[in-house]
Design a protein that fits this description.
11% strand, five-stranded antiparallel sheet, binds fe (ii) ion, single chain
């Protein structure tokens, strides 16, 4: 298989992202809604751009091994929230979708509809598939089923366990957001189950899930944000010596903290620009809406309701909602508030780049009365300035990922991933080192954090902007 030209990667990633989001949006909105139409337009635009940039038609998207791949290259970011697409493919024995340069918007819509309809599952049986596609007017999308590729070994390929656990978190959250949007019951037991799975994974390999979180920038319904908040909260809560039962409660509350956003209109939720006063008033309803949604459930931990309701409250009373009587949020709520803002500041949004953890801590400490000081200080101590999973560039040119804390705050343990020329280092070599300590006659020093796209503006300007718009972090 040929390697994907590097300049094409962002376009391929955008196309696969849109495919994942289109499936979600079509679940919630009629085909003619602006959101679905925007998705379809973007898919077509991406396809045209990919072929114009020299990619030979058709574009073959593999759905195997629990990941989306193109030309064998894993689309890690889009795969993280593609649990539904991958499950649909698995249930229908689909291993590859091919889109040729003539594909049209209506055809894409009919195909996504056919793929996601439970009643049409039989259409993907090999004996009827060609007829089902042509009777739906689908001529420029080809579906390859398991066993139709010579030497196909996809049935035996197992997914990456960290990817599976991350997808499970994203998937359960996505489904709960859809259920809340429709006014249906949430699946809170399932949410607790995937949190338990994630906890077990973090116990064995603490940095894996956080490393994947750095790739997740789809953020349908702010799913990526909530998963990252849950992982941060679990990491910090684990360091308090909390019992497993308490950790499950923390993780589930953190995962569901923004469930109220499922009832905020998506044109406000995903507006590419500053919200006006009226839009802010609607956005600021999400803690109350979240608490209401959770209160409607049969079995719910009151602390999860508290986290949804209180995660924008501040000790200095500048947050929201403003309670009518003096009110002390629970420890979980205070922790979720710290994780929520830290995650928002250190991740990429359509309107901003990512801050480094140090910049985020500066901003958070400057906001007097913005956070519970004990939780903020403890969080800072546990997460550190090089959080687990952070991608780094070394002075000598290698790329690495933080796998554990080291002897000092500025000396994390890292795994070297790429050599100075950007080539993967052989898996057999021992690539775990402590920054600043001698290893095989060399000392590695950190040049910069590469997780997230760094903004081009100067750091002072970013910090000032963040302080002057304190409501922004939660969008
Ligand atoms: Fe929020």
């Amino acid at each position: 298989m040929s390697e994907v030209n590097e300049s094409l990667t962002p376009m391929l990633k955008s196309f696969t992202n849109e495919l994942v989001v289109a499936l979600i949006n079509l679940d919630l909105h009629p085909p003619q809604s602006p959101l679905v139409q925007d998705n379809l337009n973007q898919l077509i635009w991406d396809l045209r751009a990919i072929f114009s940039a020299g990619f030979a038609s058709p574009l073959c998207v593999q759905l195997i091994g629990g990941q989306i791949r193109i030309e064998g290259e894993s689309m890690v970011g889009p795969s993280l929230q593609a649990g539904r697409l991958l499950q649909l493919a698995k249930d229908r024995d689909i291993v590859e979708l091919s889109f040729d340069r003539e594909v049209q918007k209506g055809e894409l819509l009919r195909f996504i509809d056919l793929l996601s309809s439970d009643n049409e599952k039989e259409a993907f049986h090999p004996s009827v598939l060609p007829r089902a596609l042509s009777s739906n007017g689908i001529e420029h999308i080809t579906v390859t089923l398991r066993g139709q590729i010579p030497g196909d070994s996809s049935s035996s390929s197992h997914g990456d366990p960290a990817m599976q656990d991350y997808q499970a978190l994203a998937d359960v959250l996505q489904e709960n957001h859809v259920a809340a949007f429709r006014g249906e019951n949430l699946e809170l037991d399932r949410a607790a189950g995937v949190v338990e799975q994630a906890l077990a994974h973090m116990g064995e390999s603490p940095s894996d899930l956080m490393a994947l979180a750095n790739y997740d920038d789809i953020d349908s319904f702010t799913v990526g944000h909530s998963v990252r908040v849950a992982l941060l909260a679990l990491q910090v809560a684990s360091a308090t010596g909390a019992t497993e039962d308490e950790l499950l409660r923390v993780g589930t509350a953190a995962l569901m903290h923004d469930i109220g956003k499922s009832r905020i209109p998506q044109e406000i939720l995903f507006k590419q620009g500053p919200l006006d006063q009226d839009e802010w008033a609607i956005m600021m309803e999400h803690p109350r809406l979240g608490a209401e949604i959770l209160l409607e459930q049969d079995k719910i931990d009151p602390r999860a309701i508290g986290a949804a309701f209180c995660h924008h409250m501040t000790p200095g009373d500048r947050g929201y909602p403003q309670p009518a009587l003096p009110f002390e949020p629970s420890g979980i709520s205070k922790l979720v508030r710290v994780c929520d803002v830290f995650e928002a500041l250190t991740s990429v949004r359509p309107y901003k780049g990512a801050m480094t953890p140090v910049e985020a801590f500066v901003v958070m400490h400057r906001e007097e009365g913005g956070f519970d000081p004990d939780w903020l200080n403890f969080f800072e101590q546990i997460i550190g300035i090089y959080p687990l999973g952070t991608r780094l560039k070394m002075e000598s040119g290698e790329e690495a990922v933080v796998t554990a804390h080291g002897p000092t705050i500025s000396q994390p343990q890292v795994r070297l991933l790429l050599d100075p020329q950007g080539k993967p280092l052989p898996a057999s070599a021992d690539q775990i080192i402590i920054v600043g300590e001698e290893a095989e006659g060399r000392k590695f020093c950190i040049k910069e954090i590469t997780s997230g796209q760094r903004p081009e503006t100067d750091e002072e300007a970013i910090i000032d902007q963040a302080i002057s718009t304190p409501q922004h972090p939660c969008i």
